[in-house]
Design goal:
The chain has 429 residues and is of the alpha/beta class. Helix content is 29%, strand content 23%. α7 runs parallel beside α8.
Length: 429
Amino acid sequence: MTRLHIKNGRIVDPANEIDEVGDVFVVDGKIVSVISSPDNFSADRVIDADNRIVCPAFIDLCARMREPGQEHKGTIASETHAAVSSGISTICYPPDTQPVIDTPAVAELIQQRAQQVNKIRIFPLGALTVGLQGQRLTEMLSLKRAGCVGVSNASTNNDNTDVLKNALAYARSCDMTVFLQVENTHLSSNGVAHDGAISTRLGLSPIPETAETIAISQALLLIEDIGGPVHFGRLSSARSVALIAEAKKSGLPVSADVGICHLHLSEMDVDGYNSDCHLRPPLRSQRDREALCQAITSGAIDAICSDHQPHDNDAKAAPFAETEAGASTIELLLPLVMNLVRKKIFSLQDAIAALSCRPAAVLKTGGGSLSPGLSADIAIIDPEQHFSVEENHLISAGKNNPFVGWELVGAVTHTIFEGELVYQSNISS
């Protein structure tokens, strides 16, 4: 029987409305008590969290680890090591691997690899259609039995509303959430940057805001007719936030997330053809960025995700329009969120909720809190730790990080997964 005692920390557990200094007690991988000590408790290990934040470990609703199929960009082993350094215990795995997660065998392979590493919990998303080709629906019930927590189009776009309608109906019959990242391909065409002054000046093909908002509106009408639940991933515009907020107000079973880059960066960061800021959806206006941040407080956006996409150097070395979209961000998820808390963009409680209990509610798999009886997935944060983001210190195999050179304050010192210490920073006690 293994017993862990985390003492003197500021416990922040939004799901249970706890924000006070106290202790957490763990026995055999489960939380047994918070604040008050169990009778006759004797710890095998004690972690002093004085002047630190103790909270549920984080749930990342979108992170690619490139395995199977693109191991030259990253592996489950390399990227989970990066993830736990940011306090992440659970990852939602998009289906655009090679091969695609459209059969139980691929879903099972990914979970087996995660179990071998044994640092993190991976929930795969099954493909919405076979090969993500947007034509024939996958065997969703088989994917669910193989451990998939939902089905998704990943970042591939399908303008066939009949297929989407049938997919929503099938997923609902299987009690599965549909995860959508939507974009109208007729409007986005071959675009690579937000349709604004920067793309015009740089001569980059534009992606208008309406490519996202029209696709969201179309999906919402189908949800109104068919039902859900449906999760919209990686919102990028103020108008998208307004559409989701209105849908929630009217009672539609929808939720949404935003990638961490879109809370910090805007189209201005593309200036100079910075390929590390080539993202999909694109970075939009400063007004859009501010609306996305405000939506964390209002609840229009449920979760903040890393949208982690590691690339090799060649993928970002071409002219901007020819580079691959995506940024390697998973190990900076918590520090970047803490940066926004320090700037009073939103509260610490809202920040922790958007990383823990809110994404847990989207997945419907439990977790996301420090409730007794749950798996002891815990992050300990030093809110005053200063550090500079340096490429040669990044843990991820992907060095395509738009925040290199930034000075950040706030970092994870310990990550505990199922009661076991899977990460401890060099400066931790």
